[in-house]
Write a structure and sequence with these properties.
Blueprint (H helix, E strand, L loop, with lengths): L1 E9 L3 H12 L4 E5 L10 E5 L2 E4 L10 H6 L9 E4 L3 E4 L5 E4 L3 H9 L3 H25 L12 H14 L2 H11 L4 H8 L3 H8 L15 H7 L11 E4 L3 H14 L3 E4 L3 E7 L2 E7 L4 E9 L3 H7 L8 H8 L7 E8 L18 E4 L3 H12 L8 E5 L14 E8 L12 H18 L3 H4 E7 L1 H8 L35 E3 L13 H14 L1
Helix pairs in contact: 1-10, 1-17, 3-4, 7-9, 8-13
Subunit structure: Interacts with COX5B; this interaction may contribute to localize PYROXD2 to the inner face of the inner mitochondrial membrane.
Organism: Candidatus Kutchimonas denitrificans
Function: Probable oxidoreductase that may play a role as regulator of mitochondrial function.
Length: 527
């Protein structure tokens, strides 16, 4: 038994690393326990085949929370970001495609080949998305409102939120409030007529979601992807060395402040004494005492697997069980002899440096979801692919490339059968066949293939149900309702036990914001 620590953090995902670093920076003795062999959670880059390195979990970085980058001095610990332009290439099944760039004017010119009216509307659309994204970022930059707090900090937060909303102006405020509950199909109907543009943008409202583009609230999911003041659609950043390099950077920052990190250390349960967290027990029986326990695991795994149910109220447990975890994403990694050659695409590789989206129209997305609704793998899946070796040649042997593909929809639970090797092969075959419709050389260019199903993602990274967001990002599971109403500010009913993962506000994505806010809450409670 050991009691040498002030705080134990369960799970060394990126949010856990952020929380641990801030607590240690404030002078606490912090121990991190990670069951996998490497810190980083879903920030994992591995040499799956000789010379070919793939991101196995998160594969794209939108925007790390600026205070995290600055406070933890991540640049001095090796952070090296590679901006990608264009942001999106959407190939057409008929050949050619649409390329969207960081510069709205350049995107408008690309759109003009399809529709002059859509090109004319593009600047206003990007302005509207930027305005809404900047507002969401301002909401995400603060802990959520506590509507049960009468006259305390929660009331002040409500006033501040209202003022920020009012600063959008009457038109901007009404646009935002109208957009949030809309379907992403309705949002596209408001703005554009070009199917390829509508499909490429609409896909951003359903990525990682067990919903189709006609589901209410998918416009919010689209805006969540743009919670930034940057005037670009789906800005993509890559990390030199892969997402695992970001994990190494965060680990170095945490250790520089004195955090002790133990890998291969699986936590079996949290000790609770007199209603307060008192330590943890590892699967090998080792007991570690600490005054605070912070869980980077998702809420369901934390409360249903690590806590004795007698320590929690039945109503609370019922709410936790009702959190929707619905993994619908699989990953297919391809080691390629040569780059994909998309039919009718521009020469060179410039158009392949961002995200490559196979979603030619909104009906395609809806039909892909129709299969998943009934527990079937999409016959024609939506694909979001990237070729990070273009920006970072260290990920593949000279002249060769790695292609990482997010495949949707691949339901966690199949209505007919299970995720065995045959289904895994079927998923890989459908993915390659879908790519071949747009880039016929792909099947012959594949040297190696890796397929990760939703159950694989669950077992590899501890993501319940294979849900990449630690719980679906629907309107009833965000902000003051994340993870459940009444417990949105990182505390739990057990004193001294906190949550810091993506199952808390503001949710999924590689931002570090949940970990940042959790650390702030813990330090405030400690004062």
């Amino acid at each position: 038994m050991s009691d040498a620590y002030d705080t134990v953090v369960i799970g060394a995902g990126h949010n856990g690393l952020v929380t641990a670093a801030y607590l240690a920076r404030a002078g606490q003795r912090v121990l991190m326990l990670e069951g996998r062999a490497h810190a980083g959670g879903a920030l994992s880059t591995e040499e799956t085949f000789e010379g070919f390195k793939f991101d196995l979990g998160a594969h794209r970085l939108s925007r790390l929370h600026p205070p995290v980058v600055d406070d933890l001095k991540l640049a001095s610990h090796g952070l090296d970001l590679l901006p990608c332009d264009p942001c999106v290439f959407a190939p057409s099944p008929d050949g050619g495609g649409l390329t969207l760039w960081r510069d709205p004017r350049r995107s408008a010119e690309a759109i003009r080949r399809f529709s002059t009216s859509d090109a004319a509307r593009w600047p206003d659309f990007t302005d509207t998305v930027t305005l809404a994204g900047a507002f969401l970022e301002s909401i995400y930059a603060r802990p959520p409102i506590d509507f049960l707090d009468e006259g305390g900090p929660g009331a002040l937060t409500i006033v501040g939120t209202a003022l920020r909303l009012r600063r959008l102006g009457r038109r901007g405020m009404m646009q935002l409030l109208r957009m949030l509950p809309m379907t992403v199909t309705e949002l596209m109907d408001d703005w554009f007529e070009t199917d390829l543009l509508r499909g490429a943008l609409g896909a951003l409202g359903v990525t990682g979601m067990s919903q189709g583009p006609m589901a209410a609230g998918t416009a919010f999911a689209f805006l969540h992807q743009h919670a930034s003041p940057e005037p670009a659609v789906r800005e993509t950043l890559r990390v030199r060395g892969g997402m695992g390099a970001l994990a190494a950077t965060l680990r170095a920052a945490a250790e520089a402040h004195g955090v002790e990190i133990r890998t291969g250390a699986w936590v079996e349960r949290v000790l609770v004494e007199d209603g307060r967290a008192a330590g943890i027990v590892l699967v090998d029986g080792e007991e570690i005492r600490a005054g605070r326990i912070v869980s980077n695991a998702d809420p369901r795994r934390t409360f249903l697997d690590l806590i004795d149910p007698i320590c929690l109220e039945p109503g609370f447990l019922r709410s936790v069980r009702n959190i929707r975890f619905r993994g619908v994403c699989a990953r297919v990694n391809l080691a390629l002899e040569e780059l994909p050659r998309f039919k009718g695409a521009p020469g060179g590789d410039g158009h392949l440096r961002g995200s490559i989206t196979i979603s030619p129209d909104l009906e395609y997305l809806e039909r892909a979801f129709d299969d998943a609704k009934y527990g079937r793998l999409s016959r024609r899946p939506y694909l979001e692919a990237s070729i990070p070796s273009l920006a970072d040649p260290t990920l593949a042997p000279p002249g060769k490339h790695v292609m990482s593909i997010l495949v949707q929809y691949a339901p966690y639970e199949l209505s007919d059968g299970v995720w065995d090797e045959a289904m895994r092969d079927e998923l890989g075959d459908r993915t390659v066949a879908t790519l071949a419709e747009y880039a016929p050389n792909v099947p012959g260019a594949v040297l190696h293939r890796q397929v990760l199903t939703p159950p694989d993602i669950e077992s590899e990274f501890g993501l319940t149900g294979g849900d990449i967001y630690h719980g679906q990002m629907t309107l009833d599971q965000v902000y003051f309702m994340r993870p459940i109403p009444g417990w949105a500010r990182y505390q739990t009913p057990i004193a001294g036990l906190y949550l810091c993962g993506a199952g808390t506000h503001p949710g999924g994505g590689v931002t570090g914001i949940p970990g940042y806010h959790a650390a702030g809450t813990i330090l405030s409670d400690t004062d």
